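The material for today's practical consists of a large collection of protein records. There is nothing in a record beyond a sequence line and a structure line. As an example, a complete record with its sequence and its structure tokens follows:
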Amino acid sequence: MRIHRIRSLLPAYPGARILLAFEYDLEGLAAGAEIPVSETIALCQNGVALKTWPRSAKKRAGKYEPHEFAELPRNLQPATYELVARVAAGNAIAQASAPLEILGE
């Protein structure tokens, strides 16, 4: 399993709703069967998670899963942060990250 990409609408502002898009495949994991999947997206700065968006669902092997909407914290200072996506399915874990620039209002 791997995450193909993670991206967001860049740049963003404190309190904005952003689209987090990350795609992964479940190929090789019980092809065609539904698998419990745990997804977590974290907004990080200097390796510290400031906000997380967890989600659990059942997915079919071999399909991609993009798109999640999230609201950014209103108290963010203008800076470059990091979005980290972590997906766990069975014994497989994948992680990817992308920068997120927060602008002043």
Q: What stands out?
A: The chain has a mean pLDDT of 80.
